[in-house]
TrEMBL record:
It holds the Pfam family CMD. One of its GO terms (molecular function) is peroxiredoxin activity. Residues 44-123 form the Carboxymuconolactone decarboxylase-like domain. It comes from the Bacteria. The lineage of its organism: Bacteria, Bacillati, Actinomycetota, Actinomycetes, Mycobacteriales. InterPro entries: AhpD-like (IPR029032), CMD-like (IPR003779). This is Carboxymuconolactone decarboxylase. Gene3D superfamilies: AhpD-like. It comes from Mycolicibacterium vaccae ATCC 25954.
Length: 176
């Protein structure tokens, strides 16, 4: 671990301010926030800015939950990000992804053409930093312009987050 979570005795008003209005009060404590938030709090201004952006994509974006979780899991798979994978398998199941679909994500396989286009978009952005015209056209048959924008930013945000998690050595949270 290169960057450890902020120790409980260092959670202060600055840490509280960084999370206020973003994370519920019940989760703004070292024993409940999780390793990722604890690690981000090593840099409170960055934590606040990133978490606002990330939470928009997680809770306020125009994407259906199932699609969001499908692409986040593919990002986690491609980046070998165990932390992201574990969290989003749970969220994916809650959003309606079956174990069969989740297993297919790992293999880069999809159950239908739309899921296939979404997984292809993740792969293309990961490898080439651009969604091909064919994939964009396939996605456009199901998503409006704002959804397409949210999709690209969701894939990019979770790719960036996976890079940070992997580089900092953020450990998966223990089951609570």
């Amino acid at each position: 671990m290169r960057v450890s979570p902020l120790p409980a005795d260092q959670w202060d008003d600055v840490a509280e301010e960084a999370l206020a209005g973003i994370i519920p009060a019940t989760l703004r404590a070292p024993d409940s926030a999780g390793n990722l938030v604890g690690t981000l709090l090593r840099h409170p201004k960055l934590a606040r800015s990133f978490l606002r952006y990330n939470f928009y994509l997680l809770y306020g974006a125009t994407l259906p939950e199932r699609l969001r979780e499908l692409v986040v899991l593919r990002v986690a798979c491609l980046t070998n990000c165990e932390y992201e994978w574990r969290h989003h398998v749970v969220m994916g199941r809650e959003a309606g992804l079956s174990d069969e679909v989740i297993a297919g994500i790992e293999r880069g396989e999809a159950v239908d053409d739309f899921d296939r286009a979404a997984l292809t978009a993740v792969d293309e952005l990961h490898h080439d930093a651009v969604v091909s015209e064919a994939t964009w056209t396939a996605l456009s048959a199901h998503l409006d312009e704002r959804q397409l924008m949210d999709l690209v930013f969701t894939i990019g945000c979770y790719g960036s987050l996976a890079m940070a998690i992997n580089t900092f050595g953020v450990q998966p949270d223990q089951e609570r």
